[in-house]
């Protein structure tokens, strides 16, 4: 009789321990964002460091499940791409689309070929490993670029190229890495090119269709709670990825394009949706990088440091500049912008996640591929990240006339210890017919904006509020609760609420 060993079920005690550890890691990661913004280092390095500290060479948590890491990494990339698409302005990237598309296709091909040749002839890897490394490290990470440029904003035409490139180039790179990691001979170049073109076309068609249908539906379906709109938008974006992938297209391109359509469709509660997506994006980044840090074993990286440095030099000083030169020269791009785009080719989440593909496929020497990619990302992020603002200033591309990327919605209120309250005048609310001055909000708070019939305006003291109006109220920290209490009181009892004993 064959007996099967019973797997111990997850208990409430295990759940408590897991929640405690995860919450502490999240809190440390959130605090690390402040450090990264001051030091100029992309936060990914700190998150990776947290994972390494928890891992086998740190606290001692042993984790070597590459397949689980790949699955979670893919899920995190879907969320990150969705957040990127939702926060991207179509008007800013539209003029840059031809250059970005060329960089993401022709440019990526050039980068893969040059980097693979360097890995083969200078490091001694065989052609399969060289091509995998070339493809893995040829995808840029806009999040890493913009995290170090918050205080040195670039001209919009340049940020548009970099942002669109980062959204587009994940798709062809993933296809190439998967093709190079398969057992047996690699497809001929024209077959591979045909597959990439077909998958991109399918992904683009599905992404645009899902995004348009989702926007059409959300503009016409009144959901019972405002908090459901962000959930619906993210669900539509993720559905675009799943549909694209299941149709043998590029799911990554589908989710980015669907999110781009949704983010520019003027949907209800768009600011709340972007805030929700931004929070999910942070959680995805933190979880993905910590898990990747857990997967690596630091003492095994020592033998691969110099190969990673050599491949990184080829990528940074030869492949990326040649990629930019070939791709953007036909568009009349000034040489200063070409130099900055070459130096701004930071690698972040995508290369390390893609390096798990050969691990799962059991490609020979796949552990070495992962280690080389990991070291390369760390070393060259440390070199390029802090120096990128300096390079932008030296090239006189830091546009001091444009607002810095500081998160305008929250940073000023945080410095003023203030809060932004939003409320809608419901059908039964007695705020209807009340003048703004008659709200008698406490000193330190004021109605700063009214949105009525889809149009916003700054109200005066005699502005009469109506049903359906959405009010934006700014309140300082000490009177925040009092302002909210007063608004609720007037909604129940009208403008005489305080005098009649209510509120």
Describe the protein:
By secondary structure, the protein is mainly α. The protein has 20 helices and four strands. It has helices spanning 12-39, 43-54, 66-86, 90-93, 97-123, 127-136, 142-147, 156-168, 170-180, 189-220, 228-246, 251-263, 270-295, 305-328, 335-343, 349-354, 356-360, 366-394, 411-415, 480-493; strands spanning 418-424, 445-452, 455-457, 470-476. The protein has a four-stranded antiparallel β-sheet. Strand 2 (445-452) and strand 3 form a beta hairpin. Helix 5 (97-123) crosses helix 8. The longest helix has 32 residues, at 189-220. The N and C termini lie far apart (74 Å). Mean pLDDT is 82; it is low at 1-5 and 400-412.
SSE diagram, text form:
Elements: H1 12-39, H2 43-54, H3 66-86, H4 90-93, H5 97-123, H6 127-136, H7 142-147, H8 156-168, H9 170-180, H10 189-220, H11 228-246, H12 251-263, H13 270-295, H14 305-328, H15 335-343, H16 349-354, H17 356-360, H18 366-394, H19 411-415, E1 418-424, E2 445-452, E3 455-457, E4 470-476, H20 480-493
Antiparallel strand pairs: 1-4, 2-3, 2-4
Helix pairs in contact: 1-2, 2-13, 3-12, 3-13, 5-6, 5-8, 5-14, 6-9, 6-18, 9-10, 10-11, 10-12, 11-12, 11-13, 14-15, 14-18
| Strand order in the largest sheet | 1-4-2-3
Low-confidence stretches: 1-5, 400-412
**Biggest sheet overview:** 4 strands, antiparallel
**β content, as a range?**
under 5%
- Give me the oligomer status: single chain
Q: How many DSSP E strands? A: 4
Helical proportion, percent range: 55-70%
Number of helices: 20
* Rounded radius of gyration (Å): 26 Å
Q: Structural class from helices and strands?
A: mainly alpha
Shape: globular
Distance between the termini: 74 Å
| Average pLDDT score | 82
- The H/E string reads HHHHHHHHHHHHHHHHHHHEEEEH
């Amino acid at each position: 009789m064959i007996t099967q060993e019973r797997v111990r079920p997850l208990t409430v005690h295990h759940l408590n321990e897991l929640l405690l550890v995860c919450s502490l890691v999240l809190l440390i990661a959130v605090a690390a964002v402040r450090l990264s913004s001051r030091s100029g280092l992309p936060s990914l390095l700190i998150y990776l460091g947290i994972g390494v500290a928890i891992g086998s060479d740190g606290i001692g948590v042993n984790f070597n499940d590459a397949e689980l890491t790949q699955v979670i990494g893919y899920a995190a990339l879907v969320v990150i791409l969705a957040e990127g698409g939702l926060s991207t302005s179509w008007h800013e990237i539209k003029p840059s689309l031809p250059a970005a598309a060329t960089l993401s296709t022709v440019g990526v091909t050039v980068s893969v070929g040059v980097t693979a040749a360097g890995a083969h002839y200078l490091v001694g890897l065989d052609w399969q490993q060289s091509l995998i490394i070339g493809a893995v490290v040829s995808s840029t990470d806009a999040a890493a670029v913009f995290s170090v440029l918050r205080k040195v904003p670039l001209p919009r035409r340049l940020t548009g190229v970099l942002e669109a490139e980062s959204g587009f180039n994940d798709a062809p790179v993933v296809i190439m890495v998967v093709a190079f990691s398969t057992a047996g001979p690699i497809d001929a170049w024209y077959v591979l090119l045909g597959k990439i073109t077909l998958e991109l076309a399918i992904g683009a068609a599905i992404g645009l269709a899902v995004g348009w249908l989702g926007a059409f539906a959300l503009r016409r379906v009144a959901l019972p709670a405002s908090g459901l709109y962000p959930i619906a938008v993210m669900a539509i974006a993720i559905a675009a990825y799943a549909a694209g992938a299941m149709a043998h297209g590029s799911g990554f391109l589908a989710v980015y394009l669907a999110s781009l359509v949704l983010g520019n469709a003027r949907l209800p509660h768009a600011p709340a949706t972007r805030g929700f997506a931004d929070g999910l994006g942070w959680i995805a980044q933190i979880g993905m990088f910590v898990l990747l840090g857990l997967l690596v074993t630091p003492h095994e990286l020592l033998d691969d440091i110099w190969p990673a440095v050599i491949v990184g030099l080829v990528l940074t000083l030869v492949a990326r500049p040649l990629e930019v030169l070939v791709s953007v020269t036909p568009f009349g791009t000034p040489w200063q912008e070409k130099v900055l785009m070459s130096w701004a080719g930071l690698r972040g989440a995508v290369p390390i996640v893609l390096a798990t593909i050969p691990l799962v496929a059991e490609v020979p020497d796949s552990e070495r591929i992962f280690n080389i990619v990991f070291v390369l990302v760390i070393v060259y992020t440390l070199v390029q990240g802090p120096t990128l603002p300096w390079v932008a200033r030296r090239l006189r591309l830091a546009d001091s006339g444009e607002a810095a990327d500081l998160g305008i919605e929250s940073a000023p209120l945080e410095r003023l210890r203030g809060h932004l309250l939003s409320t809608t005048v419901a059908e039964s609310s007695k705020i209807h017919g009340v003048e703004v001055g008659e709200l008698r909000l406490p000193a330190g708070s004021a109605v700063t904006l009214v949105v009525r019939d889809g149009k916003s305006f700054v109200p005066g003291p005699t502005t009469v509020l109506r049903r359906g109006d959405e009010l934006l109220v700014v309140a300082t920290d000490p009177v925040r609760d009092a302002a909210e209490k007063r608004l609720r009181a007037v909604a129940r009892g009208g403008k005489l609420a305080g005098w009649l004993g209510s509120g």
